[in-house]
Design goal:
The protein has 136 residues and is an all-alpha fold. Helix content is 65%, strand content 0%.
Length: 136
């Protein structure tokens, strides 16, 4: 696919797909994250393909992804504040195992930036300053 913008860093679509596949295998085995995802994901290959499209869009500037990750995570209703750091730590460990160091570092920085935005949109909107929960 020809794009107008160069990739954010040197990585291929097959490498992105491999990382996503390995990561979600780790998610399914994770005692904290596995049950959260299992409550929502019934078709893992379709979920992984959609997430790979998201990352290919974000990194390679492909235009295959058509979704709203923030809306999906808000709708889930079971995303808690600590899950973001757990998710990112697991993701970082997969990146370190599966990619060259410079690729892992670049993708990790991007994931952490997106993670901060996602956490603010999904979880932090449910708290007052200082993390005090909003009671309904």
């Amino acid at each position: 696919m020809i794009t107008a913008l160069p990739p954010r860093f040197d990585i291929t679509r097959p490498e992105i797909e491999r990382v996503v596949t390995v990561f979600y295998a780790a998610v399914r085995a994770h005692p904290g994250l596995g049950p959260v995802f299992a409550a929502h994901v019934t078709d893992w290959p379709a979920h992984e393909a959609k997430v790979a499209d998201f990352w290919a869009n974000t990194i390679l500037h492909e235009r295959r992804y058509d979704g709203s990750p923030i809306a999906a995570h808000v709708r889930a209703g079971n995303v808690q504040p600590g899950m973001f750091s757990t998710w990112l730590a697991l993701f970082d460990s997969v990146l370190a195992r599966e990619l060259r160091p410079e690729q892992a570092a670049a993708w990790s920085a991007l994931a952490h930036r997106i993670g901060r935005s996602m956490r603010a949109a999904v979880v932090d909107r449910e708290t007052h300053p200082g993390g005090v929960p909003k009671l309904r």
